[in-house]
Design a protein that fits this description.
Strand content: 25-35%
Mean pLDDT: 90
Helix content: 10-25%
CATH architecture: 3-Layer(aba) Sandwich
Largest sheet: 7 strands, mixed
CATH superfamily: P-loop containing nucleotide triphosphate hydrolases
Order of helices and strands: EHEHEEHEEE
CATH class: Alpha Beta
Number of strands: 7
Shape: globular
Number of helices: 3
Oligomer: single chain
Distance between the termini: 7 Å
């Protein structure tokens, strides 16, 4: 049964990320979906903080595709926005994911662009952030 958290502020979205991060054991793949401006990077900052990474250092890797951070675990932060829908239709896996799948934690923003196989991995955590209005988000994870 998915967990649903209603967030009424950026601080609450960050804290939701911290809650998710505190449960991590390493080797998880976190698949973040949601529209532009939903709070995917903010949630990632909360996850990073929970594993001992300075949240202020975490920035969206939209142009670099991947950033790596060190804390209790290595955190690989991947943003697929620029790769878009074309990625979903390719049989080739992303080297950035497959190379690091057994190391630390992988957080993937815009995971809706990934082939479905990633959503079926046993160590994947799916998080969807839905915009309710300008201030409210619904974070659904399992």
């Amino acid at each position: 049964m998915p967990t649903k958290v209603r967030s009424s502020s950026p601080e609450e979205t960050f804290k939701t990320g911290e809650k998710v991060g505190k449960r991590l054991q390493g080797r998880e793949i976190i698949l973040l979906t949601g529209e532009l401006g939903a709070g995917k990077t903010l949630l990632t900052k909360g996850i990073a903080a929970a594993v001992g990474i300075d949240a202020n250092e975490v920035v969206s890797p939209t142009f670099t595709i991947m950033n790596r951070y060190e804390g209790r675990f290595s955190l690989y932060h991947i943003d697929l926005y620029r790769l878009g829908e074309n990625l979903k239709h390719t049989a080739a896996a992303l080297p950035e994911i497959d190379e690091h799948i057994d190391e630390g934690i992988i957080v993937i923003e815009w995971a809706q662009f990934l082939p479905d196989i990633y959503f079926n991995l046993k160590n994947s955590i799916k998080i969807d952030i839905r915009v309710i209005d300008d201030n409210t988000r619904l974070v659904i994870y399992s």
